[in-house]
Specification:
Aspartate Aminotransferase, domain 1, globular, alpha+beta, 6-stranded antiparallel sheet
């Protein structure tokens, strides 16, 4: 199996977010970064060229190989924010029902606008995902 492409970098996460071209997406990204930093107590760090992650832990992939990854993070994509939860979104069905307008992928939650979701529920979701992270 090859090396995963998304790895921790030395890039400046705040500079990355400040350079997001769309005003609304930039503002939403900065707000999510502030929320995740507050919940986790960790600074934002770049994983690959476009993912802002918080914290670091080792998880075992399907082959049993340990990989370094971030427990919670996001990417301010052109069309929507992609929230990444290492523990996957399946564990949080009850919370997601209350979150607001979003769609889900394998381990992602996609939000078009931050105003589409309940901020209290979003905080609850991030907090639970952080608490459920693997501990080394």
């Amino acid at each position: 199996m090859g090396e995963i492409k998304t790895q921790l970098t030395d890039a400046d996460a705040d500079a990355f977010l400040a350079a997001v071209p769309d005003d609304a997406r930039r503002s939403d990204g900065q707000a999510v970064a502030a929320l995740m930093a507050e919940v986790t107590g960790e600074p934002p760090r770049m994983w690959g060229p476009s993912i802002v992650g918080f914290g670091s832990c080792t998880y075992r992939d399907a082959s049993g190989k340990g990989r370094e990854w971030f427990p919670v993070g996001f990417s301010p994509r052109k069309a929507e924010l992609a929230l990444y939860l290492l523990s996957g979104q399946e564990s949080y069905a009850g919370i997601l029902e209350r979150l607001g307008t979003c769609r889900t992928g394998t381990s992602c939650i996609y939000i078009k606008r931050l105003s589409d979701v309940d901020p209290t529920v979003l905080r609850e979701l991030i907090t639970r995902a952080w608490e459920d992270r693997p501990t080394d």
